[in-house]
Amino acid sequence: MEGVGGGKRRGDDGAEAAPRAIAEYLSRDLPYELSANDIYLTSGCVQAIEVMISVLAQPGSNILLPKPGFPLYESRTTFSNLEVRHFDLIPERGWEVDLEGVQAIADENTVAIVVINPSNPCGSVYSYDHLAKIAETARKLGLLIIADEVYDHLAFGNNPFIPIGVFGKTVPVITLGSISKRWLVPGWRLGWIATCDPNGILKEAKVNQSIENYINISTDPATFVQGAIPQIIANTKEDYFNKILDQLRNAADLCYDKIKDIKGITCPHKPEGSMFVMVKLDLSYLDGFHDDMDFCCRLAKEESVIVLPGSALGLKNWVRITFAIDIPSLVDAFERIKSFCQRHGKLET
Ligand SMILES: *Cc1c(COP(=O)(O)O)cnc(C)c1O
């Protein structure tokens, strides 16, 4: 038993079973073994983000977030008075991290860099080489990596999913995850923080202790979901995952083809993971729109199609389309988007 008041979560075998099962699950893809002591259970990945941002927020510190990104990070960091600095993801390069940009904005007060892979909102899945470069850059700058891998294994393109924790010996990685996305049970509210740190740097720096202290003063996931975790991990059939991947792959292909066919919107990179695609608006063709917000509001009003304005994600005049819906609905939605864009397109001269 470690730490102050550490008796809440550990101790009896029942409470130990879920962290142990998650440690084994994550270790399958790592070149070293995680133990139950590396795992902290949270109420979904949302609470994992809350815990990590709260633990890292020190006066004067800053954190590096991707642009476009997942808006909860902005809200959390702002709430915790942690300064945010954004680095770009580059659409023409499969939404890879602009590593030079990262080096330009990091300084001695930077505590961590957040990497979301597979990406919400971009639908990208990073290659081994790119992950290695991110890890190397973080090592050089002395940054901890916060890896949001809530879409772990939801990769259906050329790049397989690789956890950036494979580079845990290069640089400490804290991996955030949950059963919400891969198992499609977002309401069950079970997530985790995993310290992927075979060199024990985080333990030394008392980061594990801070996480534990925070966890000890916040609420646990429901015990019956915790109790089910070992079975959920051991007994979900491959077939279940494969069907989801097939469906997402078909939906992603359909999105990409349909977008090519619509004047006024373009997709620079075919989605190969998660459930999202970023689409750029051509406001020189789409007539009379102020911006992405205006586009999304009018699309909702006129066609009852809901897409997310890119400005909510840090990228103005883009929109995010979620394709985790059935194919007929997706076809219908794209027909509506097409007629909307045609109706509002400038007349060719
Ligand atoms: C959905 C999502 C989360 C939150 O996951 P929950 O397990 O539902 O709390 C965190 N990060 C990203 C990038 C997400 O898309």
Automatic annotation (TrEMBL):
Its EC number is 2.6.1.80. One of its GO terms (biological process) is L-tyrosine catabolic process. The keyword Ribonucleoprotein does not apply. It holds the Pfam family Aminotran_1_2. Keywords: Pyridoxal phosphate. Its cofactor is pyridoxal 5'-phosphate. It comes from the Eukaryota. Residues 13-326 form the Aminotransferase class I/classII large domain. GO terms for molecular function: L-tyrosine-2-oxoglutarate transaminase activity; nicotianamine aminotransferase activity; pyridoxal phosphate binding. Signal peptide: none annotated. It catalyses: nicotianamine + 2-oxoglutarate = 3''-deamino-3''-oxonicotianamine + L-glutamate. InterPro entries: Aminotransferase_I/II_large, NHTrfase_class1_PyrdxlP-BS, PyrdxlP-dep_Trfase, PyrdxlP-dep_Trfase_major, PyrdxlP-dep_Trfase_small, TyrNic_aminoTrfase. Belongs to the class-I pyridoxal-phosphate-dependent aminotransferase family. This is nicotianamine aminotransferase. It comes from Oryza glumipatula. The lineage of its organism: Eukaryota, Viridiplantae, Streptophyta, Embryophyta, Tracheophyta.
